[in-house]
Structure formats: structure tokens, C-alpha cells
Amino acid sequence: MASNRGQGGIQQLLAAEQEAQHIVNAARSAKMARLKQAKDEAEREIAEYRAHVESEFQKKVQASSGDSGANVKRLEYETAEKINHLSTEGSRISNEVVQMLLKQVTTVRN
């Protein structure tokens, strides 16, 4: 009878060990599932944040490029004005410059 009781105790221990192993395996599986879920959520949040930051960057680029378009037009206008002014001044004094150059070239010095 003692051997039956010993066998029964061993069987109970083996059954308890198997049950404990199942519990540990289930806990590991649940932990892995939670880690995977947390990783997926973190990746999704990172993607959303990255998209938000990219969107803000594109808005700033468009806003600044619109300003640079106005700057380009302003610079083109100013450049055209300066070219026009230089052409006018050049036309106005060209006869004087030609006369001065002719005088210098034709004057003989000893």
C-alpha cells in the first residue's frame, strides 16, 4: 500500500509539473503576444509621428518657396531697373566718353 501511495504521489507530482509547465508556456505565449502588440503599436505611432513631421516640413517648404518666388520676382524687377538705368546713363555719356578717348589718343606728348 505504501508503494501505491508512493506511486500516486509521484503521479500527482508529474501531473502538477505538467500543469505548471502548461501555465508557464501560456504565460510566455501571452507575454510574447503583448510584446508583439506593443511593438506594432509603437511602430504605428512612429509612422504617424513621422508622417505628421513630414507634413509640417512640407508646409514650411511650400510657405518659404512661395516667399522665394516673390523674392525672385522682386530681384528680377530690381535688376531690370538697374540695367535700364545703366543703359540710359551709358547712352547719355557715351558721346562725352568717345570725345575724351579721341582727345587722349590724338594728343601727342613729348
From TrEMBL:
UniProt keyword Flavoprotein present: no
Matches recorded under InterPro entries: V-ATPase_G
Keyword Signal: no
Gene Ontology terms, MF aspect: ATP hydrolysis activity; proton-transporting ATPase activity, rotational mechanism
Subunit structure: V-ATPase is a heteromultimeric enzyme made up of two complexes: the ATP-hydrolytic V1 complex and the proton translocation V0 complex.
Recorded family membership: Belongs to the V-ATPase G subunit family.
Name of the featured protein: V-type proton ATPase subunit G
